[in-house]
Structure formats: structure tokens, C-alpha cells
Amino acid sequence: MRRREFVTLLGAMAAWPLAASLLFATASAAFADDEIQIYNAQIAAVGQWTFEQHLNYTVNGRKEPDFPSGLVPNHALNGTPEFAYGMTDWWEVGFYIPFAISGGGALLSNGAKVRSLFAVPHAGERNFFYGINLEFSYETPPFSETRFASEIRPIIGWRKGDYEFIVNPIVDVGFGSKGEVTFAPAARLARN
Predict the structure, then answer these.
(1) Least buried of 47, 94, 113, 141, by fewest C-beta within 10 Å?
(2) Domain ranges of the chain
């Protein structure tokens, strides 16, 4: 490793705690109703389908919905079956079929989402990686007051040895008269 790369990497590593603090300080108290996930810019191999199942359970959450007839997060199980297909070594397309099981046991559908993920090729093998995920969704009344929404999710990450730091400064946009723009930053610091 050249000296300049090492100094740049050290500077990035020193910035991790500050970046994480800023993200958590500015995060909204309302978290995603259908999934909690940090994107790491890794995509499916060209011509290959992948499947992931995300499950999040709220042990002790809000007891009131965000809007009339909305999902109450307390004791809710949120699931997101995710299918993806590798188009190129830098582009993946996918779709989701999100659902929830309310605290009372009702199975609720959150419509569907389609997405397109663009990332630096071979992100899983790089020290510094980046990408962007673009989503368009059809949402149902228990999850949103708007029927259509989109998400813009930049992906920025660093790896050093067993450590990985990833930032997703997410912007959600709801369309229609009750739609709003929400900044929902997310970050992950992990040791593999």
C-alpha cells in the first residue's frame, strides 16, 4: 500500500465515529415500517437470481399509528421477500413484496416495490465502494397515506481488514397531496 493511500484510509477511519454520530443525531424517530437494511453495494452475479428474506420485529415500539388506520409498530413483525437479478457487473434489478403481521396477528400487504441498483464493479472486494439504489413503490393504506413513493439510497462504504463502515443517506419521497420528503440516514459499523 502506498503512503498516500494509507493516509487517506487512516483519515477515513478517523471520520467513522464522527459520521456515525452525525447520522444518528439527525435520524428521524420514525423508522422504516417495512424493513431495516443497510445496502453494501454488492450485487448479484451477471445472469443470476438471488433471494433474501428480511424480518424485523418491534419488541417495544410506538403504540399509536403515524396516521389514522396506519400500522401500529408495537409487537409488529415486518417482512420483505426480496428478489434480484444481476444485469451487468455494475447493475442489478429487483423487486420486493413487503408485508407485516400486526401486534393483533393480522397479515397486511404493503403492495410491491421495484428497484435498480448501480454500484462500482466488484464492490465486495474493494476497500472503498459506492453505489446508488433507486426504488419505486406502490403502498397500501396501513403503511402509507400515499399510494406511490420512491426512494433514493446512496451507498458509501469503507473496509479495512475485518472492519466495515457503510453509510446510506436515504431520501424517501411520497407522491400525492399527503406525500412528503423524508431524510432517513442509516449506517452500519461491523466486524466480519
Answers:
(1) 47
(2) 3-191
